[in-house]
Structures are given as C-alpha cells and as structure tokens.
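Hi V.,

Quick status before I head out on leave. The structure for the redesign project is tokenized and pasted below; the design run finished overnight.
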C-alpha cells in the first residue's frame, strides 16, 4: 500500500500543497485558492487536489496518508490585524503598570520621539489585576502568595466574561510556584477561562517581554484551538475507516514541528509558521545542490521574507516581534518587507514614485486580475513589460494585459515618464526594497552579502533576481523547481522540536548548578518527545547559552557542546562567545581580564529527527534547448524574446538572456547579460554571463 506525507502551507492568496510518496520519493505539487472566511476549506480542498494529482493510474485516498504537516498564518494574522479583545492580565502587586511603562525605545530613532504616539497596550490598564506575594531573583519567597486576593481576581474576570488571561509574576522564571497556584485558582473559580502562565511560555527574565509574550500566547490560544480542532476533526472524518487517527502536525517558528494535540498548548510558537518552513525547505534544496550557506528570499503577493542559512542551519533569534508585539520565543531570524507582487505603486506628495508597503492583496488584487482593482501594482508592471505570461497557474487564472497597460500609461502621464520607464521604475524600486531587507539580515549581522548565493522562491520570488545580483553583488541565484511550493515542501523536511530556557545570571559559573539546570531542561524535552512517540534512543538534545560582557544589556547566543560539564566545556563556550561577539560587533575582549563574561540563559532544544524526502536527479539533455515560442518583452528595449517551458529543460540546459522561463507557479525573466543553467537537481542557477565557468 502506498504511503504519502503531505505538507500544506496556507497563504493569503493560495494554499500550497506538496505530497511525497515515501516508497518512491516522488514529489507532487499543486495550489488551490485560499478561503480566508474558513481556511480549513482551502486546506481540505488542497489535500484532496494533491491526492488526485498524485494518484495517476492508482487511486490514492486519505487512507494512504501517513502524516499531514501544516504551516498556518492564523495566529500571525490575528496579531497583525490587532484582533485582540477581552484579554486579561494578572501580575505581581505593585507592578500593574508594566505594560504602560514598556521600554524606552522609540521606533525609527529619537528623531521620531516628537511625533510618535504610544500604541494601545495589548491589555488596557483597567483589565490588569494584581495579586500579593513576592519572590526574589533567586526564586526565594519574600512574601507568601495571597490566595484570598487571587480568588477575588479570578471572580472579577469571571463576572466580566473575560476568558483569555495571561499571568506573569515577578521572578517566576526562577520559581514558578506562585504562577502555578494562580492557574489552579483560575481553573477552580473561572473554569471557562483559557490561561497562559509565563513560566510555561517563556521561563526567562525581562518582565515586560515575558509579560507580552505570555499575553500573546493567551490571545491566540482560543482561535488556534478552534482552528486546529476543526482541521483535526475534518481530517479524522475524511480518514474514517483507517482504524486510527491521522497524524497531524503544525510548523513552529523555531524550525521544528509539533503534533496538533501539543501545539494548542503553546500556540505562540506558530506565529512564523509559513516563512520558517520556506527557509528550511530552501536550506535543504541548496545544501543538496552543494550550497550549505545561502540567503533565502520568499516572494509572495504582499511581502517578501528573507533569512540567512549558515552551514545548513537558518539563523535563530529570540528578539523577534509580530506586528507591534515583542515575542521572545525562539524563531528563525526572518526580515519581512512589504515588497510583493501585489505591492501598489503610488505618487508621494513630493511627486516621486513609491512602491509598497500597501498591497492590493488577493481581492481585488492587481489591475490585471480583472477583479475591480484600481491601483497599479508590481505584477501589472511585469505584465505590461511582457515578462510574465498572460495567465497564472498554467492558465487557471487569466490576466488582463490591457488593464495593466492602461493603468501604467495613466500613472506614467502623472509623473511625466514613458510607460516603459514607469514600469521599469516600479520594478527597480521593488528590487531595492528587497535588497534593503537582505542587507538587514546580512550586513547588520556582520555578514558579507557577496559571500552568499541566494535561493529565490515563492510566486514572485524569481521575478527580480537579475537586478538583485547587480544591486547586491550576489555570486548567483538558485531558483528551485516549483518555487511557489517550496514552503509547503519545507514542511516535510523538519524535525519535531521544542525549546526550553532557564535564566541563570552569574559571572562565576557553577558547573554543578549549570549541569543540574541542563538536566532539568533535557528532562522536560524528553517528556515532550516521549509524548510525540519518539523512542528514547532517537532523542537529540541541542544545548546553547546566552552570554554577554559584564555591564552589557543584551546577550549573544552560542551553541554549547554535549557531554559532561567540566572546565574544557566552559572554555569552549567562552571561546565561541568571544568569536561570535567579534563577528557581530567588530570587537571582543578575549584576552582582556578587565572585561568579565556573564552567563545569562541556559537553553536546550529537544529534537525528534524525521526522515527527510530525497531530492531526485534529472537526466542530462541538450545544453541549448529550443524555445517553445517568442513574445515581445521589454528589458532595455522591446524585442522578440524566446520563451522556454521549464518542464522541458534537462540538466545542463543553459538559457542566455534575453529570455523568459515559465512554469506552473512562477516565472523567471532572464535579463540580457545573464544566463540560467539547470543543475542535476532541477534548480536554475542564474549568474552574470561573465561569471560563468
């Protein structure tokens, strides 16, 4: 009997689906329109569609599906759209204004402080309640927990119908006892409430970030629980007759997956679900082709997400945010810029041309969609210049080239340029917007962008790669097969992963105490992996530590070796810290005894490895393939340009610009002076013609 694993990535416009046959390794991809009113509808249609496509002569049903992995934006969209209501907050007596005080930093620097207005807090002050009791920074109890006051607080929330509540007490990272008792009181007095406590969400110091992260978890928990429960029920109903539940997992922001049954208890971990899967899928594709360190660029309809992969692993951060909410959970370090296919071109009050971050979205979408759009977008500029075909998804979505032309001509008249220069200008601005995001993820982190090839994927990702090579000095760009489905493919490449952290601030590290903490964290990780069904011998524990020079306010994270903690282990971690600090900031104090090193957080990631899908090789063929047709395309000037169908290309094929390479989910314009060469894994590698060889 066939065994199929399915990855489903739900985006704002399309739901992308990939199926991998575990016996043959055959990969099947497809797309279906997303259904924002109920994303589960698009999800289930995508599953059915990919199974029909994978069936061929042999019928494949849900009975043949061994696992479904999902990347979702449900939590992300709720935060970005500020759909947070009736959320309550319980904190330590005397600290009720922690959300009001927040941090001193002002967006865009101090020059903005004259005009900046602090946004509404995630919980308004009238829905904040405090409970007596106090711990010190070591976790020792200074004042006992006030049970009577806790009961009053729980009843206050119950009487007002506030059912999502976050709890964050001072120094609970060192001792969770008071928070656990508060949760017990809430469960007893207000059983309808959904409660998140900070020692479960983020057992790490810094009260403001820990409070907001806990509140974000509480805010999205009801929505995620309903959504995941709905999907799980529909999958179970569709798979009725298999005799057991269908394994269903959800992608997390940290680059791992977790079963649906577990992820509903920690929904904040899914806030960068889709972009994280894309970075991991691109990392595997690039490493297979011999490029372990790359920049990844995921271009969609509204935005572009970029990340850096070093030695096969995307960079992680705990300093991320979703919208205006800081979220200190471990997540893949991704920078997002409002530069996608739907980004709108507009004229500033000064009369200059701008592009984005406003997007036409999927509805009404660009002018060329013919759905009532009224503003010129990046996609319209590509259509006007002939760089994309007059349809999307192999003809499933026809495009109105006349509408795009009329919009470009009207915009050109307003700024006094030719339509061609206006369209080219829109694309140039969009390319520079993307390049700025790439510089943020590289130059600002001490990396030289010229050292990294780039993997471009997503529906709009490959469209501007030739200009990005010129702007950034990239050595090459790799465009994978089916670039629009790389995020869904990435869902099938990731291990089960959970992260655990404990704050342990000290300048004089006690190896015995650190060993005890690592042991406790690894015990928590082992319990989670046991629940996920991994045998003990398959468990993997990855240690890391956050360190800083004494007197600094923020830390640098470095990996820590496995094995017993001794002086050699400590010396190795310190050496890695000095090296990483110098790489990030350009200086370090390795040999300066005046600057001591302070340990801040100890971390463990519990990993349950999976078998990743193998990427097949393609047969070699002609190096100079014939185009399927010609079309008028404008690069520097209009000209009859060869159009190639990617599915017809074999390994070793080399396409010289000007040309256009089209496929089901995306298009690659090859500018004059560039070449695109197909490697043995089906990737197109784009370089400047002078750089080949």
């Amino acid at each position: 009997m066939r065994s199929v694993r399915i990855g489903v990535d739900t985006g704002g416009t399309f739901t992308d689906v990939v199926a991998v046959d575990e016996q043959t390794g055959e990969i099947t991809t497809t797309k279906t329109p997303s259904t924002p009113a109920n994303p589960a509808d698009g999800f289930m249609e995508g599953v059915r569609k990919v199974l029909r496509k994978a069936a061929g002569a042999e019928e494949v049903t849900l009975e043949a599906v061994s696992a479904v992995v999902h990347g979702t934006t449900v939590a992300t969209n709720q935060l970005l759209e500020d759909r947070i209501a009736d959320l309550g907050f319980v904190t330590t007596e005397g600290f009720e204004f922690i959300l009001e005080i927040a941090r001193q930093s002002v967006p865009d620097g101090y020059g903005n402080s004259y005009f900046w207005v602090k946004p509404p807090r995630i919980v308004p002050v009238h829905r904040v309640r405090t409970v007596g009791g106090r711990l010190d920074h070591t976790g020792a109890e200074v004042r006992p927990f006030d049970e009577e006051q806790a009961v009053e607080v729980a009843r206050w929330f119950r009487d007002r119908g506030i059912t999502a509540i976050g709890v964050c007490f001072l120094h609970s990272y060192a001792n969770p006892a008071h928070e656990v008792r508060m949760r017990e009181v809430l469960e007893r007095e207000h059983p309808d409430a959904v409660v998140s406590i900070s020692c479960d969400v983020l057992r790490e110091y810094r009260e403001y970030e820990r409070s907001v992260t806990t509140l974000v978890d509480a805010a999205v928990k009801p929505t995620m629980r309903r959504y995941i429960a709905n999907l799980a029920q529909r999958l179970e109903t569709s798979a009725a007759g298999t005799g057991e539940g269908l394994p269903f997992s959800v992608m997390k922001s940290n680059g791992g997956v977790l079963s649906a049954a577990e992820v509903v208890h920690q929904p904040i971990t899914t806030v960068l679900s889709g972009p994280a899967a894309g970075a991991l899928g691109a990392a595997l594709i690039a490493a297979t082709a011999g490029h372990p360190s790359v920049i990844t660029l995921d271009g969609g309809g509204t935005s572009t997400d970029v990340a850096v992969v070093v030695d096969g692993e995307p960079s992680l951060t705990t300093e991320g945010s979703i919208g205006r909410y800081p979220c200190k959970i471990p997540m893949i370090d991704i920078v997002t810029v409002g530069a996608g296919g739907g980004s709108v071109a507009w004229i500033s009050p000064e009369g200059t041309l701008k592009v984005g971050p406003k997007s036409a979205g999927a509805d009404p979408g660009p002018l060329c969609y013919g759905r009532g759009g009224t503003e010129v977008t990046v996609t319209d500029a590509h259509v006007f210049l002939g760089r994309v075909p007059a349809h999307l998804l192999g003809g499933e979505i026809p495009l109105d080239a006349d509408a795009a032309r009329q919009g470009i001509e009207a915009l050109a008249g307003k700024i006094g340029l030719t339509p061609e220069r206006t369209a080219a200008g829109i694309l140039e601005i969009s390319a520079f917007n993307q390049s700025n995001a790439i510089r943020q993820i590289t130059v600002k982190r001490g990396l030289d962008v010229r050292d990294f090839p780039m993997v471009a994927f997503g529906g709009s990702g490959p469209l501007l790669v030739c200009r990005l090579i010129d702007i950034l000095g990239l050595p090459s760009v790799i465009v994978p097969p089916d670039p629009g489905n790389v995020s869904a493919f990435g869902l099938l490449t990731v291990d089960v992963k959970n992260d655990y952290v404990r704050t342990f601030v000290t300048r004089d590290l006690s190896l015995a105490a650190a060993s005890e903490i690592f042991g406790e964290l690894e015990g928590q990780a082992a319990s989670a992996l046991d629940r996920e069904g991994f045998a003990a011998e398959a468990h993997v524990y990855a240690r890391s530590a956050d360190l800083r020079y004494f007197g600094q306010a923020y830390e640098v994270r470095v990996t820590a070796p496995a094995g017993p903690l001794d002086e050699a282990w400590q010396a190795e971690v310190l050496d890695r810290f000095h090296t990483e600090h110098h790489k990030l900031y350009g200086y370090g104090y390795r040999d300066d005894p005046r600057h001591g090193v302070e340990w801040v957080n100890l971390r463990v990631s519990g990993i349950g490895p999976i078998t990743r899908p193998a990427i097949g090789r393609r047969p070699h063929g002609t190096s100079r393939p014939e185009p399927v047709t010609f079309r008028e395309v404008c690069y520097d000037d209009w000209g009859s340009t060869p159009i190639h169908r990617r599915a017809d290309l074999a390994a070793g094929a080399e396409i010289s610009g000007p040309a256009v390479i089209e496929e089901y989910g995306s298009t690659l314009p090859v500018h004059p002076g560039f070449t695109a060469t197909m490697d043995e894994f089906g990737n197109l590698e784009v370089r400047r013609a002078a750089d080949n060889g």
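Above is the designed sequence. The mean pLDDT is 89.

G. will cover questions while I'm gone.

Best,
W.
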